[in-house]
Write a structure and sequence with these properties.
single chain; Jelly Rolls; about 45% strand; mainly beta; 1 helix
């Protein structure tokens, strides 16, 4: 089945904050009208964020593929095209692709002053493999 991408894949994201290959295509920047940013994030199979928090929360809208979302201390939740994840403020979590398929989501992230994310440690291979098995 051929698919047509809605947005370009964008630029590679830093391995300081992501494991595997992930890309960002910015859509909306914080400005005088918006206290948030929005971007299209593409995760290749196995790619994922580090554990992280958002001081004012985040919304993920999955537009392609399959992946996972997990809050610290909780079970990982499968996410797929059409799912919307509303992440509360200051909740430690990660999200990314499944081991075998890519996952693309639009991330809408609110700011507090100039901060929108606090990056923490990577999701270990052991943590990830427990989720995707």
């Amino acid at each position: 089945m051929n698919t047509i991408e809605i947005f370009p894949i964008g630029e590679p994201l830093s391995n300081d904050w992501f494991t595997g290959n992930a890309f960002l295509c910015p859509l909306v920047s914080k400005d005088k009208n918006n206290e948030f940013s929005a971007g299209n994030v593409t995760f290749e199979p196995g790619a994922r964020t580090n554990w992280h928090t958002h001081p004012k929360g985040q919304v993920l809208i999955v537009i392609e593929g399959n992946g996972f979302y997990q809050e610290q201390g909780g079970s990982a939740q499968p996410i797929k095209k059409g799912d919307v994840v509303n992440i509360p403020e200051n909740v430690t979590h990660w999200h990314g692709a499944s081991a075998t398929t890519k996952m693309v989501h639009i991330a809408i992230t609110n700011f507090v002053d100039e901060t929108q994310v606090t990056w923490l440690h990577p999701v270990s291979n052991e943590e990830y493999n427990e989720v995707v098995k």
